[in-house]
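Researcher: Next sequence.
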Amino acid sequence: MASYFVAYDASPVGEVAVHDRTRCPPGCFLGEALTEYLGEFLEATQAVAVARLRYGHARGCPACEPARVRASVLPSIASA
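Model: Next structure:
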């Protein structure tokens, strides 16, 4: 299982990014002082779902798991 964090800084459209601490490149992960620990999850989709309970517009970090996160997040954005 991986440790997931959500960044406090939102994008210009109000989205917050969910990061996998073990996979996220150092330049992308803001550090634990600027993020909130979400928990341990088997998949990024689980972490994004939990983040969306707290932050309405959470998305997976494309640098952490580009293929899986984009595939799982795009359908939910289209339905929003």
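Model: The radius of gyration is 11 Å. Residues 3 and 40 are 5 Å apart (CA to CA).
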